[in-house]
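Entry type: protein chain
Record version: 2
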Amino acid sequence: MSGSRPARGESGVTPAANPAPADAVLSVRDLRKRYGDTWVVDGVSLDIRRGECFGLLGPNGAGKTTTLRLSLGLIEPDSGTIRLAGHPVPGDARRARANVGVVPQFDNLDPDFTVEENLLVYGRYFGLSQAEIRTRIPSLLEFAGLTNRAGSRIQTLSGGMKRRLTLARSLVNGPDIVFMDEPTTGLDPQARHVIWDRLRQLVAQGTTLLLTTHFMEEAERLCSRIMIMDRGRIIAHGAPRELIEREVERHVVEVHGDGVDAWAERRAPALAPRVERSGDTVFLYTSDPASALAALETEAGLRYMHRPANLEDVFLKLTGRELRD
């Protein structure tokens, strides 16, 4: 991008142009941030309502992390307004952050302390008394499934245990909203499902969650609403099922195997209205897969899978399949 802000085109979606709803825990209007000649965040507006899980998605470099840091008052915007937990940001960011929990992308637990001590020390950052924190620790440990590991050193915990402790630590101050930056990165499927269960518990209890993730299944399972960013702008927003129904065809047939490229050139355009290739796989997007499946039954050298469209298909259609560094 050039140094002057580009004119907004049809892809520049502004989902929150009206006054903030009364139950908004985070409200952002026309937020912009530029580094050098690049607009990293360019006209972002959003409202996150109390008690919902809101997903902020986008490829690397889309502006997600900068949006989070702006919303927390950790960096100053070039323009726009932010209201977090009832306080203007960055003007009253310190009081706003007293009502916020943060789960960073990478665990930053103190290895010199035990599980219980990590919770105790973190709670003191919010001005809580030691006695008050100690009354909260048993329920936090139970939530994290670490009641029997209260005295354990951090080095003895598995990756999943550390992630659950980081999540429990973010709740020590009883926050209005929890910012979670890729909370299940690096976890095995079992640990990921445990974290998903804990996050559902939080939402059921009325906690507001702001989630960034590269796992589309995670966003589709957990989030009531999603915003997709790319190159600093909002390019889509809505409920996961709404986005799938609006943006992509209902069915996907994935085809791979020997001779798939030649087959795709010869047959695919007649079998589906939209055809994409990624690596050695051809993707057929269609509302009626019958003809494609019938044609593939006679292709002995090809393997294929038929599935319903999902949020990952939406994400790839809108942001592309090329790698982002």
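Comment: The chain has two domains: 24-239, 248-319.
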